[in-house]
Amino acid sequence: MSIRRTENPLRDRMHRTENSLELWILEAKGIPIKRKYYCEICLDKTLYARTSAKPRGDICFWGEHFYFSPIPKLENVCINLYREADAKKKKDRSTLIGYVQIKIDQLTTRHPVERWFVYFFIFLPLSLIKA
C-alpha cells in the first residue's frame, strides 16, 4: 500500500475535470459597409476577450483564434458584434450591432465543432446605418 493511499484512501475514486474552450472568430456577413467592426467574447456574461477592429471591405474578416483554459463550468457563450466609434467624433461610442448566443451544450464534444451561427441584429436607426 502506498503512502498516498494511506493519506487519502478515496483518491483512486476521485475525478478531475478541466474545462477549456477554443474559439475561432472568422467573419461576419450582412453588415453595413465602410465601418470598423469588432467582437467581444463573453462567457456567462463575463468579458473574456475582444477581437481587433477590422474595416468592412467586401467581407468583414477577422480569422482570430482564442483559447480559454482553465475556465469554470459554463452555461453559454455570447459574441457581441460592435461598430467602432468614429475617431473624429469624441462623444461617439461603439455601437452594439448584434450578438450570437450559443448554449454550451451545443459545443460540448471532444471533437471540433465547425459551423456558422446566425447573429441577432439590435434595432438601429437608419441614420446610424448610413453614417
TrEMBL record:
Tell me the domain of life: Eukaryota
Q: Which Pfam families match?
A: C2
What residues does the C2 domain cover?
1-117
UniProt cross-references to InterPro entries, sorted A to Z: C2_dom, C2_domain_sf, Ras_GTPase
Q: What is this protein called?
A: C2 domain-containing protein
Q: What organism, scientifically named, is this protein from?
A: Brugia timori
